[in-house]
Specification:
The complex is a heterodimer of chains A (540) and B (92). Chain A has 540 residues and is an alpha/beta fold. Chain A has 21 helices and twelve strands. In chain A, helix 4 packs across helix 7. Chain B has one domain. The chains are: A alpha/beta (540), B mainly alpha (92). Chains A and B meet through helix 2, helix 15, helix 16 and helix 17 of A and helix 1, helix 2 and helix 4 of B.
Chain lengths: 540, 92
């Protein structure tokens, strides 16, 4: 009851300051906890007091945060909307504190990001399930050329761990930012927001592989487990799974091997094909955006597929390469790239339709090229069901939702991907979120995001296109023309096909801005573009 | 559509600090938004406000400063970190 009174008061305090800019209002935050306190004259102290101070600090301005025990006392008894903020690591309290937020009104001033299954809401707070980052393993082979193999092994171990639904696993692009650095594990835990860190080494000599690994508690640096596994290259998939199983067995001793079993059989029996695949995908996963990289990757993947026609991940990765070459205009035969991508995706799905990565990549490719966007989204949803830690999958889902005309869902999926991949370069995320705002006709916000994407990235073709279109719709034609000039240095195709934007208004909005920017059409009268867009804004 | 912290970051790096502050203030329950807000206030010369946000951050985490390595562009990273450094040193 007291909570209700307090929440009403808080809401009133907020509404009693009209006309005052939000950043100048005095808004009180509150924390509520139930626990023992020690009285010392007029002072009180103890754990209960410490917790409440932390809860207060976590509340939004004008808001109320409560502990789990308070939530348990009042839920089902009071008509309050209470939102779980997950476990938070707070200062001077060793154990994480479960925090709940009282939703005071329908439009809270600081609404948290839209929650999705598998996501957490606070970028650097500990997730509400065991969390782990796998650092790059040392290449002990004595040959720098074998670096790709060590990196590939780590990626496969990350994938194996990611299949466990109750485990939160940081994506490789974030954990690999520590490659080649002396590592302070507690710092890694804090920066990535994880409880456990796995490090190790890979030694490859001839046909033999040795993988060593040690699991460390990032909260205190304590070593929890160490193991090493020897085997031949033919058994490399078993070795990867054994490492992953050793790790999860420490975190949760009752884990069943079946829980993390590959959803399909081993991807290939041809170790040379697997080696070619690793050589192709390791640089791709590093997030570089260079034509040569994708052309080379495609050559390697073709060789791999020639050796094993049923190598699902290689087929899907090759389709993805064609997709990238098509998007960027880096292919001389866009029609062929489309046909190849669709055909390779279909083959990959037929031979490895239960592999999360294959499903995700095929969904991404088919969604871009194909007619059946709903089907493509279903493929990615299935991939995320198999592997909720699939950061790239969440990102791809974001793209598909953009194409489907669901910018809000897209942005929330980009946010989930960012939490799983906190150290990843942000250029793609800024692009995706900028596009979301573009299609919601918030061109100022979109332009800021797109500009930042360019500053953070390396001149990704679609970013220049959207920025040019954005400036044109804002009536900033000088900047629009400049963007087109920069775009022409990367590709001759200024106005691409907009077929993958399923919403007809979106399909018109994007190229129409580009045509304006390129001078192919002129606005019929000053401000006409913006006026016509304001009606679109209302409809959206 | 909700204006996520990332839009605040985008305005921050466009040096449109007032707009960035408005967005990040509304999302200052989150570490990421709080850090951008702290840096924002510092660059606006509002050191009292920057100190206040840094103090609030200190209440919930030891790490007011962060490496900012997710920002790949060194100039942007320095813009972000210089504001944080200013606020953190003022607050200590």
């Amino acid at each position: 009851m007291r909570c209700v009174v307090l929440s009403k008061c808080s809401a009133r305090w907020k509404s009693e300051t009209p006309g005052v800019p939000p950043e100048r209002r005095i808004e009180f935050r509150m924390g509520i906890n139930v626990g023992d306190v020690i009285r010392d004259g007029r002072d009180i102290y103890g754990d209960g007091v410490n917790v409440v101070a932390r809860l207060e600090a976590l509340a939004e301005p004008g808001g109320i945060c409560v502990s789990r025990v308070v939530r348990d006392q009042v839920r089902d008894k009071l008509e309050l909307s209470i939102e779980d903020m997950g476990e938070q690591q707070v200062k001077n309290i060793a154990r994480p504190v479960r925090v709940h937020r009282i939703v005071l009104d329908e439009s809270p001033p600081a609404a948290p990001p839209q929650a999705t299954e598998g996501s957490t809401k606070s970028p650097l707070a500990l997730p509400d399930k065991p969390s782990i980052a796998v650092l790059p393993f040392q290449n002990m082979s004595g040959d720098p050329e074998q670096e790709y193999f060590a990196d590939g092994m780590v990626e496969e171990i990350i994938t194996a761990l990611s299949r466990i639904k109750w485990l939160f696993v940081i994506a490789r692009n974030s954990s690999f930012t520590y490659k080649g650095q002396p590592v302070d594990v507690t710092r890694v835990g804090r920066e990535l927001g994880v409880r456990y860190v796995l490090e190790g080494s890979v030694r490859k000599g001839g046909n033999q592989v040795r993988i060593t690994a040690q699991l460390i508690d990032a909260a205190n640096g304590a070593h929890l487990w160490a193991g090493w596994y020897d085997g031949s290259l033919e058994n490399v998939f078993d070795l990867q799974d054994k490492v992953a199983l050793g790790v999860v067995g420490v975190i949760e001793p009752t884990v069943q091997a079946a829980e993390m079993r590959r959803s399909s059989d081993r991807p290939t029996n041809d170790i040379t094909a697997y080696d070619l695949y690793l050589r192709a995908i390791v640089p791709m996963r590093a997030g570089e955006r260079e034509k040569e990289l994708y052309v080379r990757a495609l050559d390697l993947l073709r060789e791999a597929i020639e050796r094993d026609q049923r190598f699902g991940p290689a087929l899907a990765a090759a389709a993805f390469c064609h997709n990238v070459l098509h998007v960027t205009g880096w292919t001389n035969d866009a029609g062929n790239a489309r046909r190849e991508a669709i055909e390779l995706s279909g083959r990959a799905l037929r031979v490895a339709g239960n592999d999360a990565e294959v499903l995700g990549q095929a969904g991404r490719v088919l969604g871009y090229f194909g007619e059946d966007l709903v089907g493509a989204i279903a493929l990615i949803d299935r991939a995320l069901e198999f592997n909720p830690n699939f950061a790239l999958g969440w990102q791809w889902s974001g793209w598909l939702r953009l194409w489907a005309g669901e910018p809000d869902v897209a942005v929330s999926h980009f946010e989930t991907s960012m939490r799983l991949n906190p150290m990843q370069g942000r250029a793609d995320y800024y692009l995706g979120i900028g596009m979301g705002h573009f299609f919601a006709a918030r061109f100022e916000d979109a332009a800021a995001c797109l500009l930042l994407s360019l500053q953070e990235g390396r001149g990704w073709v679609p970013t220049h296109r959207f920025l040019a279109s954005c400036y044109a719709h804002l009536g900033r034609f000088d900047e629009a023309r400049e963007a087109v000039t920069r775009l022409r240095t990367l590709t001759s195709e200024v106005v691409p096909s907009a077929m993958h934007w399923r919403n007809p208004e979106h399909r018109e909005l994007y190229p129409s801005g580009l045509r304006l920017a390129a001078g192919e059409i002129t606005p019929t009268r000053p401000g006409a573009t913006l006026r016509s867009l304001s009606s679109l804004d209302k409809r959206i | 559509m909700e204006r996520h912290t990332i839009v605040g970051e985008a305005y921050f790096f466009s040096r449109r600090f007032d707009e960035a502050a408005q967005i990040c203030w509304r999302r200052s329950i989150w570490y990421r938004a709080s850090r951008v807000l702290t840096s924002c206030y510092a660059h606006l010369g509002r050191l009292d406000d920057a100190r206040e946000i840094a103090k609030r951050l200190r209440a919930i985490t030891h790490a007011v400063m962060e490496p900012g390595t997710r920002y790949r562009n060194p100039e942007l990273r320095e813009l972000f970190l210089s504001g944080l450094r200013l606020a953190a040193s003022e607050a200590s």
